[in-house]
Amino acid sequence: MASLKLNLRDILAEMVTRNASDLYFTANAEVCFRVDGELIRKGGAKLKENDVESVAREILGEKKWSEFLKTNEQNLAIFDEELGRFRVNVMRQRGSVV
Fold this sequence. Notes:
The structure is a single chain. The protein has one domain: Beta-Lactamase. The strands form 2 sheets. It has a 3-stranded antiparallel β-sheet with strand order 1-2-3, with helices on one face. It has a 3-stranded antiparallel β-sheet with strand order 4-5-6, covered by helices on one side. By secondary structure, the protein is an alpha+beta fold. The protein is 35% helix and 32% strand. The protein is built from 2 helices and 6 strands.
């Protein structure tokens, strides 16, 4: 089965629109938002492990991705002029990137 092409900026915009506090990319699950303490599925196909890895690599960039491969965790912030600032945690859970 082919990988999904995730548009990170569109997903972050939806996160802002929903007033979500958290966004989750997990293999074998749909993209989820945490809104008012509840997990809300975005809808659509379940992510594959390589989908999650691809978006994590896009967020981290090559230098931090290399560090992640050694440490299995990275924390950073990303900023979009229109959407604002987002804190990001990338880690391995049960061998998969989340």
